[in-house]
Amino acid sequence: MKEVLVETSARHVHVSREDLDVLFGKGYELTNIKDLSQPGQFACAEKVLVVGPKGTLKASILGPTRPASQVEISLTDARTIGVKAPIRESGDVAGSAPCKLVNPETGAEVELKEGVIVAKRHIHLTPAAAAEMGVADKQIVSVEIKSERTTVFGDVVVRVSEKFAPAMHIDTDESNAACAFGTVMGTVIV
């Protein structure tokens, strides 16, 4: 059986070094409060407000810094703040929705001309795990999650790198729809 851990990726923000300096002060370092399943990635103590034309959401920053700032929200979040966030792979932000990031403690703000996306559901795999499952980088698969509301997610992109740990990531809307709470495994369907 081709099983993979399924994790819920709640709304979050990745910031560039430049935007971090504006929001929190020159040379500021993010505070790691929890290592995440992907090696080198961590949840930070720092939070920002994500401001759109219709509303505001609070979101955690994930570290480390990235080359460009990016906001990952659910479709429900996008409607709440009034942005048209496209469904994209992480890092593919060209032409995506704009927003404003605000430090809730100081009021410092950064205007993002683009960067708000709904992350496309995906599976992180090492080359060895991908070979074992018989899948390849950028391949599109389906994943079945058995729960109180058994769900088969289609259009799941496989991402393969030595830097990854095996895990599927879905957003909060998808997790709620599938009752994917706690430790959940999904079966990859090729």
Quick recap of the structure?
Helices cover 15% and strands 45% of the residues.
Task: Give a topology summary.
Blueprint: E1 3-9, E2 12-14, H1 17-24, E3 32-35, E4 42-51, E5 56-63, E6 70-72, H2 75-81, E7 87-88, E8 97-102, E9 109-119, E10 122-125, H3 127-133, E11 140-145, E12 151-160, E13 167-171, H4 172-177, E14 184-189
Parallel strand pairs: 1-13, 2-5, 6-9, 7-9, 10-12
Antiparallel strand pairs: 1-14, 2-6, 3-4, 4-5, 4-8, 8-9, 10-13, 11-12, 11-14
Tell me what the structure shows:
With 190 residues, the chain is mainly β. The chain folds into 2 domains: 109 residues, no CATH class; 69 residues, Barwin-like endoglucanases (Beta Barrel), CATH 2.40.40.20. Helices cover 15% and strands 45% of the residues. The protein contains 4 helices and 14 strands. It has a 6-stranded mixed β-barrel with strand order 1-13-10-12-11-14. A 6-stranded mixed β-barrel has the order 2-5-4-8-9-6. The radius of gyration is 17 Å and the shape is globular. The mean pLDDT is 97.
